[in-house]
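Internal ticket - ligand job 395, adenosine monophosphate:
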Amino acid sequence: MKTLNQFHFKNKKVLIRVDFNVPLNDAFKITDDSRIRAVKPTLIKILEDGGSCILMSHLGRPKAKEEEFSLRHIVDKVSDIIGVKVKFVTDCVGPKAEEAATKLRPGEIILLENLRFHKEEEAGDKNFAKQLANLGDFYVNDAFGTAHRAHASTTIIADYFPKDKCFGLLLEKEIVSINKVLIENKKPVTAIIGGAKVSSKITIIENILETIDHLIIGGGMAFTFIKALGGNIGSSLVEDDKLPLALHILEQAKKKNVTVHLPVDAVIADSFSETANTKEQSIDTIPDGWMGLDTGQKTNAIFAGVIRESKTILWNGPVGVFEMKPFSHGTISMGIAIAEATKHGCFSLVGGGDSVAAVKQFGLEKKMSYVSTGGGAMLEMLEGKSLPGIEAILK
Ligand code: AMP
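stdout (structure tokens):
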């Protein structure tokens, strides 16, 4: 793997694809700057070597040049976080970008305007990629969040740097973490798959069955399994067309010696609302008009027991509607159990779904071995797909 620490960047102008697609409020203030903080180690290494940084990113989904999507809004915050005054360049290609890149001196950083102001970026246009490539003499990809896209700045540009390219420290950490789960894992390996629907998780489950020893199923998707097994699930979320698929997954798991753990009880509610009437009861006898919105206490204890015995954990998707307080206890209990296991030496990766939001919301982020920064990209890796942004560096 070509990683940052294998190179020295003295006098190099390094083009770095970062993911500064940060959330902004109505006053254009950043509400979560973790994506900027995440690439700081990469930038510091390059600057300390005596190199300079040309930062490229997208922000949002602009249709053309739209001021609200300008990276100008974030440049001061980037300067604060990195500790170096970052110069903003009003275009990412053309004379302004060329002039700024030519004038760049070791120790300096420039931030180019939103790549997606040019439609050629998402189209993966070769000529546009070449114009970007001409600005620097080394290419680093540290944008895991867009590594599953074959865009000009994430993939095509790498062709113009046959040797002088590598992964940034963040992207390296993402790859190492997923490998620790899927390849160089310590057994037993447990995957917790939750979230709303079976249909959006099926490819992941099929892919990881080869690797894991335990599969914990929670969240809305558990009810499709419970119904397929003959249980009454009342008005809980269900995908009726996926009942045979649920049974097929259970069969496949059995063949592959994977133990499946389904919830045994649930917190049920008489409406999908924070103020609904609730009670706790067995998962397969839910009365009509009631829906399961969280795992019950018996389930939480069983799941925690499986987690305690695990040496490797993958967590994708909450086990309840954690956004509403009455239905957040299962997901919190899951997070605490994983944090405990991690403290005792288990490797835990949280990624590719709302479980990332959950661990952040409940202040458990630092207690996990690694929390992925890329939703869609992590999902595709878990599905066993190779990502174009990663392949482009490897070739
Ligand atoms: P995903 O993006 O697939 O990981 O799904 C996350 C969503 O699943 C969250 O917004 C949860 O509120 C939702 N969810 C979890 N458990 C349930 C449930 N029992 N019924 C309905 N939605 C759920």
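Auto-summary: Residues 195-196, 200, 219-220, 237, 292-293, 317-318, 320-321, 323, 353-354 surround adenosine monophosphate (CB under 6 Å). Residues 185-382 form a domain with the Rossmann fold fold (CATH 3.40.50.1260).
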